[in-house]
Amino acid sequence: MMVRRVAVVAAVVAGACLLASGHAVGTTITFTGLTGPMTLDSSTTYTEGDYDVDWSGGGQHPLIADDGSGNYALWDSVTGDGRGTGARIRRTDRESFTLDAIQARNFASGTAFFIVLSGRLDGVEVYAGEQFSFATSSDYIDLAPSFLGKEIDDLRMIIVSYHGSYAVDNIEVNAVVIPEPVTMAGLALGVGCLASYVRRRRAP
Question: How far is it between the farthest Cα atoms of the chain?
Fold first, then answer.
C-alpha cells in the first residue's frame, strides 16, 4: 500500500512538472503551396502555419520563388546590386519562439556575398547579426547562428546575392507555450501532496 501511495504521488508531481515546463510546438517554413513567385513588400505578407514572413523595411523586397527544382525558397529580389534584401519572421500572434534550424543554398560560384541572421525580443536586438558565406552547394546546408534554441520574437535576415546565388529555406521555428495558471496550480497541489505525505511518514 505504501509503495502504491508513493507511486501515485510521484506520478502527480511528475505530470504537473512536465505540464508546468511548457512544450514546444514546431513548424518548418518551407514556402509550400505557392504556384508562382511572391514579392514581399509593405502590404504583402506570406503566412505559413502560425508564422508571418514579410519585408523588414531594409534593402530590396524579398522574393519567394522557385529555385529551379520546383522547390520554393526566399531570395534577394534584385541581385547583383549589393543592397540585399531584408526579411523578418514573426509569429502571427507576435509571441516568442525559438529558431531551431535554417538552411541555405548557394547556386552561383565565386561569390563574395552573404546572409546575415539576427534575433530580437521585445523590440531589442538581443542577438546581433551573424554573417554566413559559403561556396556553391549542390544542396541546402544548415546554418548555425549562436542563438539557435534561444527565445526571440523577431527573426531578421539579410540576403545579399549575386545573380540569384543565395536562397533560404526549411526554417524550423518552435513556439514555447507558456503554462496556464491551472497547470501551475496542479504542480503546487502535487508538491503539496508529496510534502504532506513525507511529513506524515516522519511523524512519531
Answer: 82
Count the neighbouring beta carbons within 10 Å of the beta carbon of residue 178. 10
Is the torsion defined by CA of 84, 85, 89, 94 positive or negative? positive
Fold of 23-177: Jelly Rolls (2.60.120)
pLDDT band at 8 (very low <50, low <70, confident <90, very high): very low
Looking at residue 7, its pLDDT comes to: 44
User: CA 173 → CA 27, 89, 98, 109, 188, distances in Å?
Assistant: 5, 10, 6, 30, 31
The cell for 131 is 554573417
In b/e form, how buried is each residue of 77-95, taking b as 16+ CB within 10 angstroms? bebeeeebbbbbbbbeeee
Instruction: Outline where DSSP puts E strands in 37-82.
Output: 38-39, 46-48, 51-59, 62-66, 72-76
Give pTM, 2 decimals: 0.76
pLDDT in tens, 161-187: 876 688 999 999 999 776 655 455 555
Cβ atoms 113, 78 nearer than 8 A: no
Q: Which amino acid is located at 140 in the chain?
A: Y
Written as nine digits, the cell of 47 is 503566412
> By C-alpha distance, which of 95, 87, 104, 86 is closest to 50?
95
Q: How does residue 127 score in pLDDT terms, banded at 50, 70 and 90?
A: very high
